Amino acid sequence: MASTSDIRNGLCIKYNHDIYKIIEFLHVKPGKGPAFVRTKLKSLTTGKVLDNTFSAGHKIEDVRVETHTYQYLYAEGDQFHFMNNESFEQITLNKSILDNPDLLKEGTNVMVQVNTETDLPLSVDMPASIILEVTYAEPGVKGNTATNATKSATVETGATVNVPLFINEGDKIKIDTASGSYMERVKE
């Protein structure tokens, strides 16, 4: 058992007969009344996100997890195949367990959290950013740069990303995997 002082991002807990991962938390100490912790929880079975408030000192049941490095191999419909980099054992995960599956490039290393009691994968943590090549981008309109104008571009994995007007086909761009947004152009 853990208490609210042990809450951190990435902690997996049992709550309402389900396993949740803490995405965000904030300790709040109002001037009047007892302290509490405001959290955003993501269900690891359904993928739903809910907001919850725990009073200070509340006991929570944490889930013991191990983190392993897996390499993304390929997708087959809604099933994504990964290989453990140490034991070369392969696992198949459903698309719903992944945060941004359309940004996954074959050969990318991800961190998979596994429940030690049941040996079931709980969540997949992608790298903070990923570099992908633009396969299609509409040409930018010259003179349309008075404001921070963007256009949509398709990258090699098939995902669509809003990019600045100067990005062209063949450019490599860095994408934030948490939000799926453009970060910068990469020169090689």
Automatic annotation (TrEMBL):
Residues 130-185 form the Elongation factor P C-terminal domain. Keywords: Cytoplasm, Elongation factor, Protein biosynthesis. Pathway: Protein biosynthesis; polypeptide chain elongation. It is found in: Cytoplasm. One of its GO terms (molecular function) is translation elongation factor activity. Belongs to the elongation factor P family. It comes from Flavobacterium zubiriense. Residues 67-122 form the Translation elongation factor P/YeiP central domain. It comes from the Bacteria. Coiled coil: none annotated. HAMAP family: EF_P. This is Elongation factor P. Involved in peptide bond synthesis. Stimulates efficient translation and peptide-bond synthesis on native or reconstituted 70S ribosomes in vitro. Probably functions indirectly by altering the affinity of the ribosome for aminoacyl-tRNA, thus increasing their reactivity as acceptors for peptidyl transferase. The lineage of its organism: Bacteria, Pseudomonadati, Bacteroidota, Flavobacteriia, Flavobacteriales.
